[in-house]
Amino acid sequence: MDTQLEQKVAAAREALRFINKETRLGIGSGSTVDCFINLLAESAGSRGTVTAASERTARQLETAGFKCLETAQELDVYVDGADEIDDNRQMLKGGGGAHTREKVLACCARHFVCIVDDKKSVRRLGRFPLAVEVLPVARSYAARKLTALGGNPRWREGFVTDNGNWILDVSGLDLTDATTMEKNINTIAGVVENGIFSLRRADVVIVAGSGGLQVIDKR
Ligand code: 5RP
């Protein structure tokens, strides 16, 4: 497991242990999830119904022969990657700009299985810029408010989310109290959702590194 791709595949393969044919499954997005979809397609023979957190994931799943549900129902398991994850199973997500729907599916699920390579494991969240989805009309206002919270927001120019909104990538925020920051940012008018996953943490974390797999199971 020397390369990052090998590690992503190993973490994704381990996640298959947490699902079976009856599992009501939700799937996030990103390159680690791409590995999971490939393995799932092989193991499930590309049958079944799943809920996808992004249009891209839905297209991949449908191409592999799965049926995708349009709206989020109750889920047994949600599998997704992360941009950062700490020892308390709090995450930063949204590098792909899909964190709003990802959070909805994570909240619909009984168990959130997070699959990462060990470059994503951090002692403290905040090196990766925090993705904040905003209504286009609120971009400047939200940027000013995020600056007042200590951040340095940058517009992800040219990128439109699946919900038709824009993303501000915010560096420099103090995420020592990630739960409070998650709540505070979501009170800014025009903010749709931010990429802190502290209120809804992972239940299972699968970390793949050159030394092997580490599985933290808090279900
Ligand atoms: C997308 C996300 C992804 O889960 C996150 O960016 C991880 O992606 P990758 O597996 O490619 O590193 O939050 O919005």
List keywords for this structure.
Rossmann fold, binds ribulose-5-phosphate, 7-stranded mixed beta sheet, Alpha-Beta Plaits, 28% strand, 4-stranded antiparallel beta sheet, alpha/beta, 219 residues, 6 helices
Q: What is the strand arrangement across the widest sheet?
A: 3-2-1-4-7-13-14
Structural class: alpha/beta
Largest sheet: 7 strands, mixed
Query: What's the total count of β strands?
Result: 14
| CA distance, first residue to last residue | 27 Å
Folded structure, characterized:
The protein has helices spanning 4-15, 31-44, 55-63, 99-108, 139-148, 178-186; strands spanning 25-27, 49-52, 67-69, 75-80, 84-85, 91-92, 109-117, 130-134, 152-155, 166-171, 191-194, 196-197, 204-209, 212-217. The two termini are 27 Å apart. Helix 2 (31-44) links the parallel strand 1 and strand 2 (49-52). The protein has two domains: 4-121 and 199-217, Rossmann fold; 130-195, Alpha-Beta Plaits (2-Layer Sandwich), CATH 3.30.70.260. Helix 1 (4-15) packs across helix 2 (31-44). It has 219 residues and is α/β, with parallel strands linked by helices. It is built from six helices and 14 strands. Strands 3-2-1-4-7-13-14 form a seven-stranded mixed sheet. A four-stranded antiparallel sheet has the order 9-10-8-11, covered by helices on one side. The longest helix is centred in the first third of the chain and has 14 residues, at 31-44. The structure holds ribulose-5-phosphate. Residues 28-32, 80-83, 93-99, 102 line the site of ribulose-5-phosphate. This is Ribose-5-phosphate isomerase A. The active site is at residue 102. Pathway: Carbohydrate degradation; pentose phosphate pathway; D-ribose 5-phosphate from D-ribulose 5-phosphate (non-oxidative stage): step 1/1.
